[in-house]
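Lab manual, section 2.4: Encoding a predicted structure.

Procedure: take the sequence of the chain (367 residues), apply the prediction step described in section 2.3, and record the output as structure tokens. A sample record is shown.
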Amino acid sequence: MAKDVLPTTPVGVAADGSLPLPWLGSALTQAAALAKAHALLIVGPAGAGQLALGLLLAQTALCEDPAAVRLQKPCGRCGSCHLVATRVHPDLLLLLPDALRVQLGWVDDEDSKLSKAETKPSREIRVEQVRQAIAWAQQTSGRGRGKVMVVHPADALNTTAANALLKTLEEPPGRLRLLLTSADPEHLLATVRSRCQRLRLDLPAPDQALAWLRTQGVADPDALLQAAGGSPLEALAWARDGVTPALLAELPRRVASGDASSLAGRPIPRVVDWLLRLAHDAQVTAAGGAPRFFAAAHLPGGADPAALRVWQRALQRAARHDEHPWNAGLLIESLVTQAGAVWASPPSPGGHVATRASAPASLHSRR
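Recorded output:
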């Protein structure tokens, strides 16, 4: 799942000219030099705001204010900008995984069944979606400024879907512009990458990120921003879900003691992500480095290297299978129990850590 989305993701520049995210200004300036590129690949770390930038560039391409068009920045006031901001512009298509659309609340009446379906919405962009998008691209522009297709994240294109998009990427019909996003472009097909110009989007500087988080009502954002790896969007999403600096401060020692109580009731993907960050910091500090996600004072010492490697592999297996309908409580307890072994007891002969539960092992067997 893409990590640069919020419960309410800002779309385009506002009527007062303010950017949806203040750190997008430099990327918007760089994009002006690539205005003639028919396919743009927005590359940057997860949580940098790729979706917001893609929508901002779409608004720029479709803006109908002549002065704004010359400046390569949308006015935020014309009819086209309003239609983009409300996501009803006839010449803008957002190609997203169904699961992300549900998460964002961007589900219209025709596909409201997504939020009511018994099966989980797909986390992939399916070939059927791409074929429908290609058919849309071949239709006449509704407002005469061309068309824009935003593919977010392009990493979610499965192989068949990516191959189906290649012809359109190489020879877009009419005045179509394609804007793709990716946090890991090396996982995209080489044939997709080669058809796009790249635009780099970096995380904002810590001071800018902290200042923005305070404007969003996060009173003490420092620990949240550090644990989120510098991503203000992820830090804000955590704050809105009730994650506090106190929880993050006590989490490493609780996990090291095998106590999973502070993780109870939280989604498996988020818990696994936190535990992977903790395992990363444990490995770095054991090698004499500085932790990235947690404060050094909050990290327990004395991790057993062999047990740590076993735990990391279990976490990676759990991350690959977080869509499986596991019993969340049992899986989280199993992973935290193994963490307790990392700091409390040495691995048994053969490199395996004895645990009270076996969910991670079953993950491996069901791959």
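Check your result against the sample. Strands lie at 39-43, 92-95, 147-151, 176-182, 197-200.
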